[in-house]
Amino acid sequence: MVMSNLMLVLTVFMVSATYLLMRRMRGKNRLPPGPGFALPLAGHPHLLREKPLHVTLAGLAARHGPVLSLRLGRRDAVVVTSLRLAKECFSSDLDVAFANRPRFPSAREVSFGYTGLPAASYGPHWRAMRRIATVHLLSARRVDLMSDAAIADETRVMVRRLARAAAAVSSGVAKVELKRNLFELSHGVLMESIAGTKGKRGAGSDADMSEEAHEFKKVVDEIMPLLGMANLHDHLPAPLRWLDLGGVRRRLTELVNRRNALMHGLIDAERERRRQEDHAADEEELLPESKSMIGVMLLLQESDPQQYTDTFIAALVTVSAPPPTGSSCTFTAKRMHISTFSALLCEEPLRRRHGDHVGDHGMGHVAAAQPPVRAAEGARGSERACWPRPPPEQGRPHLPYLRCIISETLRLYPAAPLLAPHESSSDCSLHGYHVPAGTMLLANAYAIHRDPSVWDDPEEFRPERFGVNSADGQGQQGMMLPFGMGRRRCPGESLALRTMGLVLGTLIQCFDWSRVAGDEVDMTQASAKILYKAVPLVALCKPHDNMRAVLHKI
Ligand code: HEM
């Protein structure tokens, strides 16, 4: 009996190994190189145990080349680790071939059955959503409006909270956990942009967060850890997934139902508000841009109710919520990014841990960013300069150092280090190799941004490389892809950059930041699809001398 079982295992193993070897060797259908031994059924997960994944994949690329193939469970995957290849994938005909997203079972729960923008397959539904997102919800005009309203308001709320915390201690220096503050800020901005929940309640709208934002935050807080566990489910055989032994799927379904109920409640509330309003004349005069995202969508619904159903609206506006597994970006990414900037601003010199490697990042000059950025703001000390208002369009070039810091941080710490996974919809050829339909494509932005053949001293944090005094920065920007490339490039890029600039600029302008004595800023990266610090940053925050009077009045 034991003998026959052993024979069976050996036969399965030999057949799988021969099959994989033959596929790899087949003349014009030659797959990209990759690590040889793949476990039958499981593939290469044993090679990916080391965390974080983007660092492990960079190591494999160093051994096998800039395009390598892997087997992950029943999926073929190709990883590209060079700028040239990433551009080939996302800017030529291949961009269409790779415009699909892989369907992970756990993403079905959070992405409205794969109909949310980040998870949707390439096709008419995705095109319709994408057009609305870029034209109506995240256009330059709307980003301006959001800067004036939601982002500025929520930044002011955060500044007030920090100033009060500092005023409450006798030393005037508060110890604050930035991640929590930025998390609340991003939720506030999110809810204000989606539904304008604070504005609708009139008096008391200056509260730190609306009830809806609180509920949304609670749901998001609970969903996030489950997504990590749900990833494991994705690689289990279907019958085991169905059994849902750990109860992850059941819990996720409950939470997603709560989130959806909240979204549908917001849509109904906005519809009711519109009905009750004596809007006939006034409404016509209001520009669609001046409304919340739901308000804009309801206007579209009036013109085409079949297309813009409530579910369509909920799926579209929830894109800013936590990412479906397999997608990657959100306000979360942005929040984590501001947290990373803040870490850089507090540390001198910054020490960085990467697995076992602990090195001096040589970022002493980063702390020196505070004075130049402040000086660049011009009217320092005036209420106008301190107030979290977006710098006017023509004012933005006066903040070149801030722009450089943001670019350099996105280079070294791209929020989505492997972008979001793409999937080929047809057989195609990449760098002379055959890529079958249904192959998952990962682009290792983290490794591409540190490629020594492209960047001088790639491990150094050097904002000046983006051209503080000139327009050189444009060229450098084209050598990185923190927001992806091609058709599925992030549509929230302008909003993200605007918010990061505004929040970081305000934090620098209003407060002096330093690290807690004796503590080093730990830049260890958590292992996740979104890159963030494993250890939340606790920093010392002291109102800037010239700003005290202004902060007092907030
Ligand atoms: C620091 C902030 C952000 C970063 C680094 C970031 C990065 C990314 C990346 C790398 C992708 C995948 C691109 C690809 O598939 O190749 C993506 C997709 C996406 N992002 Fe962002 N993002 C950020 C903020 C935002 C914001 C604020 C929004 C909206 C409010 C947003 C909405 C989206 C959507 C909807 C997609 C999916 C697009 C599609 O599949 O067609 N992102 N983002």
Automatic annotation (TrEMBL):
InterPro entries: Cyt_P450, Cyt_P450_CS, Cyt_P450_E_grp-I, Cyt_P450_sf, Plant_Cytochrome_P450_Monoox. One of its GO terms (molecular function) is heme binding. It comes from the Eukaryota. The chain crosses the membrane at residues 6-22. The keyword Manganese does not apply. Keywords: Heme, Iron, Membrane, Metal-binding, Monooxygenase, Oxidoreductase, Transmembrane, Transmembrane helix. The keyword Hydrolase does not apply. Its cofactor is heme. Belongs to the cytochrome P450 family. This is Cytochrome P450.
